Amino acid sequence: MSGTVIDVTDSSFPGTVAKATGTVLAVFRAEWSGVCTALDPVLAEVAKEYAGRLTVARLDIDESPETPPRYNIHSIPTLHVFKGERWWGPGSGRPTRPAWCRS
Question: Residue 63: what are its φ and ψ, rounded to 5°?
Answer without folding.
Answer: -80, -25
